[in-house]
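Narrative progress, year one. The postdoctoral researcher (J.K.) led the effort to move from monomer predictions toward full complexes, under supervision of the PI. The following entry was the first complex the group processed end to end, covering 280 residues in total.
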Amino acid sequence: MMISDNLSTYLIISLFLFSLGIYGMVRHRSFIGMLISSEFILNGASLNFVAFNRFLAPNPAVGQIFALFIMALAAAESAIIVSIVLMVYSRFHSIDPDKVRDLKH
Amino acid sequence: MNFYRLLVEAVFVIFIIMICYGGFIAVRARYLMNAVMGLALSLLGVAGLYFHLGSPFLALMQTLIYVGAVCVIIAFGIMVGPKPKHDEEKRVMGRRNAILASMASVCGFTLLIVAVIDTAWVPARSGKGDFSVAFLGENLLNQFCLAFELISVLLLTAILGALIIANIGREESGR
């Protein structure tokens, strides 16, 4: 059996990406590190969609379109988060999520 | 199994190694810039998996958008933004929460892996269509037209909002 032609391989890889993202999300101590981890989570999800699309789905375009939408959303999200991080740094002089506690400063 | 199939499997394994190695760099790196480089390596590996899954267009878009745009934005955010003063602040990871974090991710990973292996996946009745870019574009402009237009409006709004927020931040730091 070929490992590149098997649904479970792709699902396990996307699970690996997902749990790596969760680990990083808990352990990183800056907002940018958490952004990097969230990219891992998004990638795990979209790899999952494309794998199901390749092996199980009736219409082979749906999963690819979903993955394209996830990419567009991730690009918009990271642009906004980086600008928010710049603003938070200029207010709080820190991007540690534990130190940035107050909504109003 | 002929030679070319074997070559395909070898390339697949190389992509998996890229994903795992890049992921571990991104999660365990000491500095944020190394984490971004690990993210880029891992995303390139995912692009290779998209290629194996039969959609080279998606692989191209993954390389273009994620590796080309998102990683560069994050690297800019690191360079423009905070400058850590002490060596302790430069460290990416806190010592705390290590056990809890690994427990959370490992437990979720094992549970979901058991679910994946335990399920008998049944393929749906295959309809018409193929993996070509032409079919993808046809679907994108017919069935998913509304979502496509909404995504473009959302991108425009997000970029304008990011510019405005960054401008506010710059004015405040200039004061």
